[in-house]
Design goal:
The chain is built from 6 helices and 6 strands; from the N terminus they run αββαααββαββα. α5 runs antiparallel to α6. The chain starts with 16 loop residues before the first helix and ends in an 8-residue tail after the last helix. 33% of the residues are buried. The mean pLDDT is 91.
Length: 171
C-alpha cells in the first residue's frame, strides 16, 4: 500500500501532552499566518514559540513594510530578493518582544499552504533561514512531512540546508 499522510494535528512521537498543547497553538498560528501571506508566488507562515514561557509570534512571508506584493510577474520573479521569509519575520518580532530565558531555546514551526490548505514540506533547504535561526539560538525547527511532523535541532537543520541538492555545499 501507499504511504498515508498523517494529520497535521497529530501529536509528534514522544511529545508530552503539555508540549503538544503549545505546539498545536503554534501550528494553528503558522497556518493562519501562511493563509494571510500577500505573496502570489508562495504562501508560508512560521510560528516561533517557547513551550516553557508561553510566548508565541507568527507571521507570513511578505515584503517588509511599506513595500507590498502587487502579485505581478515581476514581483514573483524578484520574490526571493523582496520578501522576508516567514521564519525571519516571526523570529525578529519574537526576539524584539521576548524577555529573559524566553529569548533562547525556542521552537519554530514552518507551514506552507496552497489554496489556503497546509501542504507537506520538503527537506531543510533554506540556508538564509537555517543560518539565522542557528545564530538566534533556536532549539528546534518543525517541518510537516508525509510521515508527520519532524523536528530538527538547529545545527542539523543548518547542515541539511547547506548540503541540500540545490546548494551541494560540503561541510
Amino acid at each position: 500500500g501507499g504511504l498515508v499522510m498523517r494529520s497535521i494535528y497529530q501529536r509528534p512521537s514522544g511529545m508530552s501532552e503539555h508540549a503538544h498543547r503549545s505546539f498545536l497553538l503554534a501550528v494553528e498560528a503558522a497556518i493562519e499566518a501562511a493563509r494571510s501571506s500577500p505573496c502570489a508566488k508562495d504562501q508560508r507562515g512560521a510560528a516561533v514559540y517557547h513551550v516553557n514561557y508561553g510566548h508565541l509570534v507568527a507571521l507570513p512571508n511578505a515584503p517588509p513594510a511599506p513595500f507590498v506584493c502587487d502579485r505581478s510577474e515581476a514581483c514573483q520573479a524578484a520574490c526571493g530578493k523582496l520578501a522576508v521569509h516567514a521564519e525571519m519575520a516571526a523570529l525578529l518580532k519574537y526576539l524584539a518582544s521576548a524577555t529573559g530565558f524566553a529569548a533562547q531555546g525556542m521552537d519554530v514551526v514552518h507551514v506552507r499552504t496552497v489554496g489556503g490548505e497546509p501542504v507537506t514540506s520538503g527537506p531543510p533547504s533554506c540556508i538564509t533561514c537555517s543560518r539565522d535561526m542557528l545564530a538566534a539560538e533556536v532549539a528546534r525547527v518543525w517541518l510537516w512531512h508525509d510521515e508527520g511532523w519532524r523536528s530538527y535541532d538547529a545545527v542539523d537543520f543548518h547542515a541539511r540546508s547547506l548540503t541540500h541538492e540545490k546548494h551541494r555545499l560540503s561541510l
